């Protein structure tokens, strides 16, 4: 895909096989919600997320049992042929877990540290230093992840005292923004003083308000060239979480801010954790930043479209191309850039179908029972009868095989 948004220059950070920042494309990541101590269940979910397209997967490391399970998770994933890098999410006791479980420290590809709860009082600086020193020892990058729900209270108190002495003090919202940015940057500076190179530091400042996130990241990006992880924390469930996340991150990505993203959705009861990966991919793809799977343009329906068949066909085609994409990615170059259109009547049907690589214009109310198919703007066939879905799916498969160059054609 053509890159139309100019990204802000950041330092490139290598995380296992994945590069974040620099000239690398925006990276999609996710997080498991299994009990990490259950290494089989956690490995299975990591694999599901990776196969859905998560390029980095974060796991909770909160107990000795969880830390002991991390190398087992890595081994299980390797046996499954899933080489996704694992990120350890640490709070409160990360220094002790990494020190006591060197196999865990080695198996993880990156550590996430929250400066607001890495330690308290006199122990805070010591325990932060221990984690950074371990990251240096094992040659691991670190995400310094500030969260407004666990902001460093000592730093906040200091900044509030300073703010009170200003001729024109900041209001409470502005103070929160400034404190989060300061926490991230001061922690990064400490990490560098302790020997961690800037090329192994990623920053994040997560909040749950859209306008807060935008303001904080604009300020953070203006003051540093560290790679940045974007995410609206506690985004919520269903459409609310999707809309809030895309509203916030879409603005920042349009500004060229953000090197890796996570959509923190609350899954529906019994729902798949992979939804957050799909939403992140679709956000990047609809903005023209990445291409992951063929996109389907579909008619919303109106009084001219009395049949629901176009809705069913659009769903069938979307599910088909997403299911086939892992195989197509292995076999063909560029299939993820394919566009499809499933339209419901003559008003916009032929025009939209001609704009797509492959499109079908289904008959609306009072129209002849025929569905012309267009390939690269040219009408190639008209489908009729009860097997339109199967025939159109076969046309899509044939188009991919005919149009996109095969990888390893002699294999």
UniProtKB/TrEMBL annotation:
<keyword id="KW-0004">4Fe-4S</keyword>
<feature type="binding site">
    <location>
        <position position="299"/>
    </location>
    <ligand>
        <name>[4Fe-4S] cluster</name>
    </ligand>
</feature>
<keyword id="KW-0411">Iron-sulfur</keyword>
<keyword id="KW-0408">Iron</keyword>
<comment type="function">
    <text>Converts 2C-methyl-D-erythritol 2,4-cyclodiphosphate (ME-2,4cPP) into 1-hydroxy-2-methyl-2-(E)-butenyl 4-diphosphate.</text>
</comment>
<dbReference type="Pfam" id="PF04551">
    <property type="entry name" value="GcpE"/>
</dbReference>
<feature type="binding site">
    <location>
        <position position="352"/>
    </location>
    <ligand>
        <name>[4Fe-4S] cluster</name>
    </ligand>
</feature>
<dbReference type="InterPro" id="IPR004588">
    <property type="entry name" value="IspG_bac-typ"/>
</dbReference>
<dbReference type="InterPro" id="IPR045854">
    <property type="entry name" value="NO2/SO3_Rdtase_4Fe4S_sf"/>
</dbReference>
<feature type="binding site">
    <location>
        <position position="345"/>
    </location>
    <ligand>
        <name>[4Fe-4S] cluster</name>
    </ligand>
</feature>
<dbReference type="GO" id="GO:0141197">
    <property type="term" value="F:4-hydroxy-3-methylbut-2-enyl-diphosphate synthase activity (flavodoxin)"/>
</dbReference>
<dbReference type="Pfam" id="PF26540">
    <property type="entry name" value="GcpE_C"/>
</dbReference>
<dbReference type="GO" id="GO:0051539">
    <property type="term" value="F:4 iron, 4 sulfur cluster binding"/>
</dbReference>
<dbReference type="GO" id="GO:0005506">
    <property type="term" value="F:iron ion binding"/>
</dbReference>
<dbReference type="GO" id="GO:0046429">
    <property type="term" value="F:4-hydroxy-3-methylbut-2-en-1-yl diphosphate synthase activity (ferredoxin)"/>
</dbReference>
<dbReference type="InterPro" id="IPR058578">
    <property type="entry name" value="IspG_TIM"/>
</dbReference>
<dbReference type="InterPro" id="IPR016425">
    <property type="entry name" value="IspG_bac"/>
</dbReference>
<dbReference type="InterPro" id="IPR011005">
    <property type="entry name" value="Dihydropteroate_synth-like_sf"/>
</dbReference>
<dbReference type="InterPro" id="IPR058579">
    <property type="entry name" value="IspG_C"/>
</dbReference>
<comment type="similarity">
    <text>Belongs to the IspG family.</text>
</comment>
<dbReference type="GO" id="GO:0016114">
    <property type="term" value="P:terpenoid biosynthetic process"/>
</dbReference>
<keyword id="KW-0479">Metal-binding</keyword>
<feature type="binding site">
    <location>
        <position position="302"/>
    </location>
    <ligand>
        <name>[4Fe-4S] cluster</name>
    </ligand>
</feature>
<comment type="pathway">
    <text>Isoprenoid biosynthesis; isopentenyl diphosphate biosynthesis via DXP pathway; isopentenyl diphosphate from 1-deoxy-D-xylulose 5-phosphate: step 5/6.</text>
</comment>
<protein>
    <recommendedName>
        <fullName>4-hydroxy-3-methylbut-2-en-1-yl diphosphate synthase (flavodoxin)</fullName>
        <ecNumber>1.17.7.3</ecNumber>
    </recommendedName>
</protein>
<dbReference type="GO" id="GO:0019288">
    <property type="term" value="P:isopentenyl diphosphate biosynthetic process, methylerythritol 4-phosphate pathway"/>
</dbReference>
<feature type="domain" description="IspG C-terminal">
    <location>
        <begin position="296"/>
        <end position="397"/>
    </location>
</feature>
<keyword id="KW-0560">Oxidoreductase</keyword>
<keyword id="KW-0414">Isoprene biosynthesis</keyword>
<feature type="domain" description="IspG TIM-barrel">
    <location>
        <begin position="10"/>
        <end position="280"/>
    </location>
</feature>
